[in-house]
Design brief:
4 helices; single chain; elongated; mainly alpha
Length: 130
């Protein structure tokens, strides 16, 4: 499970970096034709987050943290799919900042879950109850 966790963690980092780069390009009104790619990569990122949440449940890591990650993934998708309709006009930048922060939090949650899984597996590998 440790190898799978590491692979998913790397994919989360690549997807997260891709999202940030695309987001900056969109904020500067460049390559807006890539918005569908941004949405697809965002969905992949959420699926990776959910995978880590499931793996953390399997590994016996903090169940509340895993449940929060599952709910947070729903929030990420809902916000991403509807953000253009929320607070349109000159104040829309507020939603864009919220969108960025929600996405960064999802990446952070994935990192935390991955670390927890690796730690739990290391402890179990030593024969210590985790």
């Amino acid at each position: 499970m440790k190898t799978a966790t590491t692979i998913i963690q790397i994919l989360v980092r690549v997807a997260g970096l891709t999202q940030i780069v695309l987001g900056v390009l969109f904020w500067t009104n460049n390559v807006l034709t890539l918005v569908p790619i941004h949405m697809l990569v965002g969905l992949v990122l959420v699926l990776l987050l959910w995978s880590l949440a499931g793996m953390s449940l399997w590994a016996g890591v903090n169940r509340g943290r895993a449940a929060l990650a599952i709910v947070w993934g729903v929030i990420v998708v809902a916000l991403g799919m509807t953000q253009t309709q929320i607070l349109p006009g000159s104040a829309h930048w507020v939603i864009e900042v919220v969108h960025l922060l929600v996405g960064l939090a999802a990446i952070g949650m994935a990192e935390g879950l991955a670390a927890g899984i690796k730690q739990a597996r290391s402890i179990q590998g030593l024969g210590v109850e985790g």
